[in-house]
Design goal:
five-stranded mixed β-sheet, 11 strands, alpha/beta, 52% helix, D-Maltodextrin-Binding Protein, domain 2, 15 helices, six-stranded mixed β-sheet
């Protein structure tokens, strides 16, 4: 009897020990995250439907998840209250977010090299070629690299705009009609043309366009067609003049907070860059090739009238563009503190020529082929074991 009792006690001891062990293991497993997902905080100040928010950030976040097999997840705050158009770069440098876009026209003093290069923007219209050239130049030119480092951000990739057209609350298709019009124009050079043509340039952020047109603080603004549609500017201005004024690109589509960037592995950085190549290609095809076409149809449906520019108005713009290349170097030196602007502009123009040749035979309806060229020829050549770490 004593032997049975001893056996019974031992059996109960080990049985209880087993269940206690299972309970401890269960508690410990519960304390471990269900997956090793690492989150990235991204933000844009542009509205959720803006071409940058929708194509460079929402789409990019999807591709990051794809390339990381779900181990990296980008949480994107679109139209974020954390960022302002002028303060987005400073907020990124301060670590308020991990990654963000920034429009360089709002901070020409801080991004003086970008501003000096963009003095040439009115000379170009082929965004398919230009965004590749800009990415190459912004990653590799020593003056550009110094500029990013000086501002406390790690450059990640470019953005670009479609050609900006004139949108007004009344028809403006002649030079006389343009004179005296309070007009928001993108960048210093376009503003200088406006003044020369007799308009009154007004400095406002793009987020202020709707209200300014509605209240009469603006007679005209400039924007690309998808932006006019997304921001519902057709509600307050019904006339578009089909005269491409400029594109612009100063700033970046992605840059990273340095502390966040240093905390990533080389493989994680490669995931972000692979996704960016896809996002740029998607951006060009969806926002430019398809987006421009679809936006024009939708704007006409909303009652917007498209006007051809009078020869005198078009001549005014073309005459300014023809002189701009000569003036750009002097402006870069005096206004943007560039010691040798001719050398800077020559390096940039050579990069554009290189990419014009490289993309000559790339089909403009093959998004995947375009993404692969960007990845192979630009992003894969960045040494991510060293880049952005000094």
């Amino acid at each position: 009897m004593k032997q049975k009792t001893t056996f019974f006690i031992a059996r109960m001891f080990f049985r209880n020990l087993f269940f206690v062990s299972i309970a401890v293991i269960t508690i410990n497993l519960a304390a471990i995250p269900a997956s090793a997902v690492e989150y990235i905080q991204a933000a844009t100040w542009t509205p959720p439907t803006h071409i940058i928010s929708e194509n460079l950030y929402t789409f990019w976040a999807e591709r990051v998840k794809h390339y990381s097999q779900g181990n990296l997840e980008v949480k994107v705050d679109l139209g974020s209250a954390m960022l302002t158009p002028r303060g987005a770069m400073a907020a990124l440098a301060d670590g308020i977010v991990d990654v963000a876009a920034h429009t360089g026209q709002y901070t020409p003093s801080e991004l003086n090299v970008s501003a000096a290069v963009e003095e040439l923007a009115m000379l170009y219209t082929d965004t398919f070629t230009m965004i590749a050239a800009i990415a190459d130049f912004d990653f590799n030119d020593p003056m550009m690299r110094e500029q990013w480092q000086r501002n406390g951000v790690v450059y990640g990739g470019p953005y670009i705009t479609p050609p900006y057209l004139l949108l007004c609350n009344k028809e403006v298709s002649t030079l006389d009609q343009f004179k005296g019009k309070k007009t928001r124009l993108p960048g210093r050079a376009a503003g200088a043309w406006g003044s020369e043509a007799g308009a009154v340039p007004v400095s406002l952020s793009s987020n202020e366009m709707y209200s300014a047109l509605d209240k009469g603080a603006l007679d005209c603004t400039t924007a690309c067609l998808p932006d006019m549609l997304d921001r519902k500017l057709y509600e307050v201005a019904k006339h578009i003049t089909e005269m491409p004024i400029t594109i612009f690109w100063a700033g970046y589509g992605w840059a990273y907070n340095p502390k966040f960037w240093r905390g990533l592995t080389v493989d994680q950085r490669r995931v972000l860059f692979n996704a960016q190549a896809d996002a740029i290609a998607h951006f060009i095809f969806k926002a430019f090739i398809e987006g421009e076409r679809d936006a024009m149809v939708s704007l006409k449906t909303e009652g917007v009238t498209f006007h051809k520019p009078n020869p005198a108005l078009l001549k005014s713009l073309n005459n300014f563009k023809n002189k701009q290349e000569e003036r750009a170097a002097d402006i870069a030196k005096k206004k943007f503190r560039i010691d040798d602007p001719q050398a800077l502009h020559t390096r940039f123009k050579e990069t554009v020529i290189k990419w014009t040749k490289r993309l000559k035979d790339v089909p403009r309806d093959d998004e995947a082929a375009y993404a692969e060229i960007l990845r192979k020829e630009i992003f894969d050549k960045v040494d991510l074991s060293k880049y952005g770490l000094n």
